[in-house]
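Figure 6 in text form: structure in, sequence out.
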């Protein structure tokens, strides 16, 4: 009886490890094939996956970079945010916060200024 119990325990442990490895592999695959929609791996962590489709975030985030993001109520300067526009609800836009409410933004040929200070966009 004792040997049967050990065998059952080993089989159960082997099945549990196999299932865990399959879940980890699936999560990795889901993250590596992100197409802008929520994927299982990120969903399990309360996040969504998106791919940066334009050059607007370069050089920090080159086109094709895959990011995971979560919703928040407040953002700070320099943070990367993901959002949808009302007229394009299926398209995720990814941008960096450069100014906060009440700050003055000027965009010229020479670059961007926030409250008179030149923004370092490198």
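Output sequence:
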């Amino acid at each position: 009886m004792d040997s049967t119990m050990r065998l059952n325990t080993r089989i159960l442990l082997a099945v549990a490890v196999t299932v865990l490895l399959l879940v980890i592999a699936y999560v990795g695959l889901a993250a590596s094939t992100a197409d802008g929609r929520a994927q299982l791996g990120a969903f399990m962590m309360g996040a969504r996956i998106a791919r940066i489709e334009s050059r607007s975030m370069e050089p920090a985030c080159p086109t094709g970079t895959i990011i995971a993001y979560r919703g928040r109520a407040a953002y700070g300067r320099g943070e990367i945010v993901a959002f949808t526009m009302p007229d394009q609800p299926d398209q995720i836009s990814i941008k960096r916060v450069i100014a906060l409410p009440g700050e003055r933004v000027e965009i010229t040929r020479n670059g961007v200024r926030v409250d008179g200070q030149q923004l370092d966009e490198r």
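Caption detail: The two ends are 69 Å apart (CA to CA).
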